[in-house]
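Record 1 of the preview.
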Amino acid sequence: MKQWTNEQRRAIEENGNLLVSAAAGSGKTAVLTERFVRLVAEGASASEFLCVTFTNAAAAEMKKRVENGLAAAAGEAEDEAVRARLHDAARDVVQANISTLHSFCAEVLRRHFHEAGLDPAFRVADEAETLVMKQEAWDLVAEERYALETGSFSALIEALGGNETRAAELILGVYEFALAQPEPLPWLLQAAERYRASPEELEHSPAVAELLKRSRHALAAALDRLQGMRDTIAEDAPKLAAHLDGEIMAVRGLLLHDTRGAYAAALAAFPGFARISWSGVAPDARKAVEHARDALKKEVKAQQSAYAEPLSAETGRLHAQYPAMRELYETVAALDARYAEAKAERAVIDYSDMEHKVLALFQNEAVAGEYRRRFRYVFMDEYQDTNPVQELILSAIVRDGGLFLVGDVKQSIYRFRMAEPRLFMERYARYRAGHGGERIDLNANFRSTAAVVNAVNGVFSRIMTAEAAEIDYDAAAALVHGRDDQGCPGGAELCIADMEDVPAAEPEDEEDEAPAEAERPDAVALEAAMAAERIHALMAAEQIRDKETGELRALHYSDFVVLLRSHRGVAELWTETLALHGVPAYAELTGGFFDAVEVRIFMELLRAIDNRRRDISLAAVLRSPIGGFTTEEIARLRAEHGRDEAGTPLACVDSLARAAAYDTPLGAKASAILRHLEEWQELSRLLSVEELCGYLLDETGYGAFCRALPGGKQRAANLAALVERARLYERSGARGLSAFLSFMEKVVGTGTLGAAQTAGADVVRVMSVHKSKGLEFPVVIVAGLSKPFNRMAARAPLAADGVLGVGAKLEEGGFRKETIYKRAIAARAAAKDLAEEMRVLYVAMTRARDRLILLAALPNAARAVREAALPLSPARAAAANSFLDWVLGAVLQTQDGDILRKRFGLPWKRTQPGGWMQVSVRPAVGTALLDGRMQRGEYERFARMARAEGGGAEFGALFTRRYAHAADTVIPSRVTVTGLAGHEITMAEAPGFAEKDARFGAAARGTAVHALLRAIPLRPYAQEEVAGEIVRLREEGVLCTEEAESIRPAHIAAFFASPLGGRLLASATVRRELEFNYRVSARHLLGADTDEPILLQGVIDCCFLEEGAWVLLDYKTDFVPPGTTPEEAAAKHARQLTLYAEALAALTATPVREAYICLLGIGENVRLL
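->
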């Protein structure tokens, strides 16, 4: 029986409304499940529960756990009635209301479609479809409002910068924000009407209070920084310290005023900063103090300017912008109406409709009462991610004493999806005070080693406060180590690379700006190289305890994950650099499946069919496996046929037409591709896009080609996702290839296309922190710590806040005029963003089970350490610019940071005890960065020097020297067995349609036979029985019509009737289509002069155990020419069969006794081993 902590037991057993604040790894799902089981055991029915969460995967996992928990409890129950009730409940869980909130809303709307004003056959539109509908609605609204005689819409667009596309993005952003409010349009109208406020109303408004609060925080942070610098020089420069004391005390006096009027008056009366004497102060110390003092002076001056204007001037600016705000409201209202019409025409709703229509239904007491009577208990997981509308929906149907909420506000990282952690904190405060329910804290962490837990506590106990993160990391929030580490202590480490001696990349063009320090590609590559080094070291020296078996085992690549705040633009560099250092890695592509190369090529084919004059698309098709043109042929095409008689460059399609006029191999290829483009273009007018895509994948052989490549299953899945996207697109009523291509261009980059890959292999995963939410990994590497936080949102001309309304910074007379509402919302948003960044870091660090590694490559490590060494006050924590500011600041308050103090010459100071973070610093010099290419400026300097030297003999020798082991430099990191054996499927020389048997060739027939032998039940067959199986598999979609027709049933029946087939059928252990990845040295595999490991990949058709040893079969449908013996036909596959046998024996620790090439076409099974 599971052992529960006291707090877990309370959460399981106490009655009444409960809010469980469950820290990372605290077993919250297990507690929720056990509470469900307890209530059922006490007499509740599973149908009386409503359990909601935020993802389908989480809902499925919750349902599975509840079912297993009920079944286990039934087995342990002594009372017969209780046992029967639990068994019945476990059986009925599949019908229980355990789902996402949106699934529950959809169920309510289907039941009450009439009251909700919906078509009874409504469906839920996906995000990509709604995106396009909103854009179409916007186009209509913009046209209508431009036609208004008032000119108010044109004035709004001009006020937002004059760019209609950008203005549309801003207005749609406000619309999306409004939809997360309980009453979207009334909320927006109220926000617009606030622009008519009087000075007296403004003085007592939430905006003024918010702005004053943030102003005081900013001033306190600058003060704390100067105070820290003052303390570092006090002993050596007492006069300077005394002068600074006076200035610090004077500025602190400003913070005593807590009303706008008093604060503004104090700022106006502030005497300023006197000249200062720096005599006797060391240059480095002076520079640091001067920098902090200048920052404080700048902050005071900025606030003096901001508060100098009377509120009457602020209201005057608001009144001037009221017409624009009113037009904003009218435009959004018109957009909402047009969008609603579009959805009604298609009989669809979106996710926002679900919430608002259900909330409206629940305003009807009859409907709300129905669900209140139906659900005795309402459970909600991940409560910290709710928005105000979702909160009201649940509140409308919950019975008193039946609410059970589970979440962790420290893991609320979805504010961009309108999640509002404030709701959690407000309820937490109410329940803590005993109003409305009971609060329970679960902080025992059963996931991580003590080392990881101590590191998390070490950082967040020093930075997470209500001021900085909206929650105090106190004893109730801190993690308590609850796992039995069983001799695997793990660890936590901070690895810093100092790039001070590494020059920054130079811009490619004079107009380009140099990259920001923290975004330097060489810094990213350096961190990846450091990660590879640590991965190799840990795999060689460390073991972990397997979570499933409890046994010690070596680390695998799949035990590692690299977490990035944002992997956009750097994930590919990470995987490339890791691979360069011998670490296989995988990263989910930013653009979803659309970024997969096989999808991109196929999309270019569709574009070329739609418009043959798209040169880039057509050239991509020619060079792809579909076109089969070589680089040399494309060069000849452009060189020999790329211009007309006047020398004018021709379009690619015209070059093909000219080439097709010649009776040459190139002309034949050009003629074939033109003929097929014309055929496909005609078909595009007759077929649906889904049908066209399916036809093209079969006709060109491109689908089979992609399946035959390494990772073929995933490539095929990506192409299938594209075909499915076409089906969903046309289900909405849209038609035509051109419209589909336009639709896809709109949705690319929106994050609605899904994953392009799945990591099922033994590889290191590279992902964003958001993607890792809810997951755990033995070793977590958090990288990019020094990347600055993204603060671009605060600079937008329009900003929205649920409490403060809409803030504008509009153009008037060529100048942008920022309202007090905009400043208040920007300040509030910046604080919220910073709090979320801190929670993102918490999520990243708490994903680790055994070891946590934090990486930072710093262009100037000394400066970063000096800044971070200052006292880490709440105000300074709230002014951080990167994760590293927090991590370094926390480490340097303890003895763990002494190594940094010593390394960078900081004065020793008495610090707090450490022991929770291992710190290391290394120079970046000598580390391989990127791929070794010179930047342009470096190359030009080198070239000038070489020319000046005159090219002596010593230079010539350098440039003509041959590397002794050049052949070994091209050893691949991965090969396939078929590739080594010389039978890799390729379409590089000729497209499938260039052959006479274009529709179905020998390779495709072989694929069909393999698919049949993989799926057919193992038993003896007559010829007609095989034919029946082929028909069944065709109907089930395993085989297409052409594949089914290509298979000869007599050959399959003959194989199973053979002695070898009989042995196969008699075996109790048979493996079919056995994929493998097997590491072998290059010396053994290729005869190379190196033992570098190579990953050998392959698929064994069939193997079976007989008398404790494997018998291996490889099916071949090769044509055997007359006069060729079976042995001669099989001999060419000997290398392939030998590699299969070697890999099978090594990976299963079972010998391979026999191996056969099964020549199905002639009914011969040839033994080669």
